[in-house]
Amino acid sequence: MPENGTVGRVTATRAARRAIAALCASRGGPVMFVQSGGCCDGSDPMCFPGGELALGDGDMLVGVVEGCTFHTDAAQYEALGRPFYVLDVEEGAPGGFSLAAGDGLHFVTRVKAPRKQTS
Amino acid sequence: MKYQPPGRPGSPVDVAPRYENFIGGKWQAPSTGQYSVDLCPATAKPLCEVPKSGAEDIELALDAAHSAKDAWGEASTAQRAAVLNKVADAIDAHREELAVAESWDNGKPVRETLAADIPLAADHFRYFAAAIRAEESEITEIDKDLIAYHFHEPLGVVGQIIPFNFPLLMAAWKLAPALAAGNTSVLKPASPTPWSILKLMEVVGDILPPGTVNVVGGPGAEIGKALATNKRIAKVAFTGETTTGRLIMQYASQNIIPVTLELGGKSPNIFFNDVAAADDDFLNKAVEGLVLYAFNKGEVCTCPSRALIQEDIYEEFMGRCLERIRAIKQGDPLDTETMIGPQVSKQQIEKIASYVEIGVKEGAELLTGGHRPTVGGEFTDGYFYEPTVLKGHNKMRVFQEEIFGPVLAVTTFKDEAEALEIANDTLYGLGAGVWSRDTRRTYRMGRAIKAGRVWTNCYHQYPAGAAFGGYKVSGIGRETHKMMLEHYSQTKNLLVSYSDKPLGLF
């Protein structure tokens, strides 16, 4: 259900939407989010220039936030009980090759209670 | 005993206000002119300034690595091994200094860095010094007059990107085989722990021929990418987060270069009922084996973060474990009595706290911990989190997702078949532990668990000589073993005819 200008099973806080808009404006194009899993910076959303990660059949589109797509590995999504993600920003440097959410900030995902669906 | 923090009187470690990149054997300011503040996780206070480099610095480092690669690649294995052994000797000679620096930069307790990180790093250089001396080329006699010679040749310049959880040991795991095989390296340390590797370069920088090892610090999105996508690297090695691992493979595919990756894990640690058959040393060892989830504050890719306990001993065994967990001493990482220090960053404790909350919301039972402890004194703002245990079932998110903190998810199983099913019900396959007095059972389990390393009646030992790496999405390649030399070598085949006779086709 669309919420705060987003579609799908991901929404964003006001701070995250501001950060995404500023990032897109400074880069002159959209970014993409990939929910990570595992190791040091795992469980954070990685934010890359739009199209940077080549997506495969195993990736699913979780939703769209401020015109930017949010993806995750479908097997991971199932293993985690099909979570509902909320993008937010926090202090601290981003992990991996992720873009920052502004000076000294990085994106995080918070999780609403898993909504198991029968499919 | 307590060590004084780096920079204070009586400390074995000095701290400069600002550090530079180590390129071509020299300290070089970043071309960006920018620096970032490295925070000490125990106090949340600034430790020093470190370079916030840009893509241009990667190019400078690659220039240095390329200018060094021919001489280093052509050096005899005896010469290369001698350098590696000197590096090991220097690390040993500066053990306390490096251990204290590592603890202060990362937060891990100094009892671990003194006993494990630093001695293992030195040993790694010695292992690969020995391995490269013992390595032989292969000759195949195709027929009487046709001989295939196979020579191992260095790849050239390699890019290496290391994680924050064992900054010096992971550097050693990557650098030792690369250098032994005759390559030169451009290495990027993790952003939360940029400093200890620079202290290591102070110690070993003069031993390494200029340009063989180059260290450039800065944001992954800029310099990590600039390194991994660069056409001037012949291989990329990465330890870290899974999506970045995928991106690195993708970049490597564009340049058609090999990659080795060590990614995430959610390792099962399985305790069969016979561990409690006697109240003896073995039971004591098994209890410690479970508590090892708190080793390095759980910031380990192989953290045994899922404990599977056979149901008929659960109450008794877990009771003993909880007693041991509640006795864990948390606090100043530079106190040798401290068993668990702070997490590496504020981001990590926030993530851990949110996972514990998720676990409890999902219905997991909080058996111990679950809070930020009050450590007090200069550590009031440090990134501490209590050793925590959640009891639940394997479908819960806290059983499936790597938390990278001192949080254990514990569940029970009925029999061997169920233990195996739960153990393998994960996306990851890096490590596992199996505990039993029945070695036929541990063998069956060990072979059936889909993970690269199955610790059997032990855990968290990382000796050079035992191959380490992942199944499934946990990565590609095997480190800490001489087989890593193959990942850093080309094979040159000379197919030589000693016959005077033509083929007779034309």
From TrEMBL, chain A:
<protein>
    <submittedName>
        <fullName>DUF779 domain-containing protein</fullName>
    </submittedName>
</protein>
<dbReference type="InterPro" id="IPR008497">
    <property type="entry name" value="DUF779"/>
</dbReference>
<dbReference type="Pfam" id="PF05610">
    <property type="entry name" value="DUF779"/>
</dbReference>
UniProtKB/TrEMBL annotation, chain B:
<dbReference type="InterPro" id="IPR015590">
    <property type="entry name" value="Aldehyde_DH_dom"/>
</dbReference>
<protein>
    <submittedName>
        <fullName>Aldehyde dehydrogenase</fullName>
    </submittedName>
</protein>
<dbReference type="InterPro" id="IPR016160">
    <property type="entry name" value="Ald_DH_CS_CYS"/>
</dbReference>
<feature type="domain" description="Aldehyde dehydrogenase">
    <location>
        <begin position="36"/>
        <end position="493"/>
    </location>
</feature>
<dbReference type="InterPro" id="IPR016161">
    <property type="entry name" value="Ald_DH/histidinol_DH"/>
</dbReference>
<keyword id="KW-0560">Oxidoreductase</keyword>
<dbReference type="InterPro" id="IPR029510">
    <property type="entry name" value="Ald_DH_CS_GLU"/>
</dbReference>
<feature type="active site">
    <location>
        <position position="262"/>
    </location>
</feature>
<dbReference type="InterPro" id="IPR016163">
    <property type="entry name" value="Ald_DH_C"/>
</dbReference>
<dbReference type="Pfam" id="PF00171">
    <property type="entry name" value="Aldedh"/>
</dbReference>
<comment type="similarity">
    <text>Belongs to the aldehyde dehydrogenase family.</text>
</comment>
<dbReference type="InterPro" id="IPR016162">
    <property type="entry name" value="Ald_DH_N"/>
</dbReference>
